[in-house]
Amino acid sequence: MTIPDWQLPAGVDRGLWDYLHAADMVANYDEQMRSSYLAKTDVLFCESVFRTPGKLIDLGCGTGRLCSHFAAKGFECVGVDLSDEMLAKARENVPQSRFLKANLVDLAEFPEQSFDFAACLFSTLGMVRGAENRAKVLANAFRLLKPGGRFVLHVYNRFFLGLSLRRLAVQFVKSLFERPSAGDITMSQAYGGAPLTLHHFTRWQTVNLLWEAGFRTLDGVSLGLTRTGEIQPARWPTSLRAYGWLILSERPSE
Q1: In whole angstroms, what is the distance from residue 113 CA to residue 68 CA?
Q2: How many H helices and E strands in the chain?
Q3: In the 8-state DSSP scheme, what is residue 98?
Q4: Domain CATH code at residue 85
Q5: Can you name the residues that pair with 151 across neighbouring β-strands?
Q6: Could you give the CA distance from residue 234 to residue 230 in angstroms, rounded to a whole number?
Q7: DSSP string covering 34-66, please?
Q8: How far apart are CA 16 and CA 150, in angstroms?
């Protein structure tokens, strides 16, 4: 599916649009998730903090891996994504859950305080273009949760030592001078299409964004990356050794 740039949804650039609609990527996505240490780690983290079955919304659900896990545990799951191709596969994978096409920047069709749990995993927030749009995603997550509802967010680390020295230097300078593009890292796509830009965060920035949305942060895991690609707790200093973070927050009870 090809549309002109001026018709792209809010928070979506050409690179992300091409990624979301790459047929080869969707066809191989489930296999990639099965072999991904991050995909295993984030589900286990969610399982440890979403303890009682309730209503769960997965923001950027892909082919439904989180809904599949929690639907089997008695949760009522809803998945949201912008990719028709991903959603078609998700409906096939998890027929007992609901999957809807929607932009995370605008979730007005969902009523306020309608979910017990929410998740935005696999750096989905980092795929959203523009600081204002990312703030809207978090505001939507807050609005959808009931008081006391829990939200798990995954982001990548802007200053991870595994990035190239050139990228680290560029990010340090941009962050020091508070440039609007600080944190944006652009890379070529494995499936063709325009280059994909992924926003990388600092832990402080992530926590601050959650606070600004109204959340209270409760817990978090600093994700380290071994040479074989396995995930483990990051060693000190985590600000440099963390591959990314999984952060648990809560909408305060009223």
Answers
A1: 23
A2: 10, 10
A3: E
A4: 3.40.50.150
A5: 118, 249
A6: 11
A7: HT-HHHHHHHHHHHHH--S--EEEEET-TTTHH
A8: 28
Contact by Cβ (8 Å): 194, 14: yes
As a whole number of angstroms, the distance between CA 90 and CA 100 comes to 10
The H or E element containing residue 163 is none
Average pLDDT rounded to a whole number, residues 187-207: 90
Q: How buried is residue 60: exposed, middle or buried, by Cβ count under 10 Å (0-12/13-18/19+)?
A: buried
Instruction: Provide the domain limits for residue 25.
Output: 5-250
Domains held by the chain: number: 1
Structure-block tokens of residue 235: 């060693």
**Tokens encoding 216:** 């209270």
Q: How far apart are CA 26 and CA 239, in angstroms?
A: 33
Q: What is the pLDDT of residues 146-183, one digit of tens each?
A: 999 999 999 999 999 888 899 999 999 999 999 999 99
Q: What is the pLDDT of residues 79-135, one digit of tens each?
A: 999 999 999 999 999 999 999 999 999 999 999 999 999 999 999 999 999 999 999
Q: How far apart are CA 120 and CA 104, in angstroms?
A: 10
H helices of the chain, in order, are 14-20, 23-34, 37-49, 65-71, 84-93, 124-127, 131-144, 165-176, 203-213, 238-241
